[in-house]
Amino acid sequence: MLDFSFATADEIAQELAGRLKAARLAQGVQQSELALRAGVSAGTVKALEKSGQSTVTSLIRVVQALGLTQHLQQAFVLEVRSIAQMEQAQRAQRQRAPRKPKGTGTGAATSKA
Q1: Within the chain, which residues score under 70 in pLDDT?
Q2: Tell me: the pLDDT tens digits for 38-67?
Q3: Which residues form the domain of 50?
Q4: pTM higher than 0.70, yes or no?
Q5: How far apart are CA 107 and CA 61, in angstroms?
Q6: Where is this region: Disordered (predicted)?
Q7: What whole-number distance in Å separates Cα of residue 29 and Cα of residue 32?
Q8: Could you tell me if residue 85 is inside a domain?
Q9: Most buried among 10, 17, 19, 96, by the most CB within 10 A?
Q10: In a domain, 111, yes or no
Q11: Residue 52 and residue 17 in contact, taking contact as beta carbons nearer than 8 Å
Q12: Which of 70, 56, 65, 69 lies closest to 29, judged by CA?
């Protein structure tokens, strides 16, 4: 099994593609049937299984159609290990991205002479 910690994005995509294909085959479902269940095109399923390339929405639809939604539940869950991390996580949830200072746009500056 691929260790995602040391893998490239393409390697992770390829691994997930293989796992989805294995799940589909284990259920005895053809690509065209999966596409119909997921509400995506057969080409989308083929591309997803071949290269792992897909939109997030299409990936989720295929996962749902295969009955694997429970495996998404723990994806990207913030693991808090200390009180300091809890406080930092809470602050991060309430913060907004800083605004760009006024007058630093990318347009050409105009000056009055």
Answers
A1: 80, 93-97, 103-113
A2: 999 999 999 999 999 999 999 999 999 999
A3: 4-72
A4: no
A5: 42
A6: 88-113
A7: 8
A8: no
A9: 17
A10: no
A11: yes
A12: 65
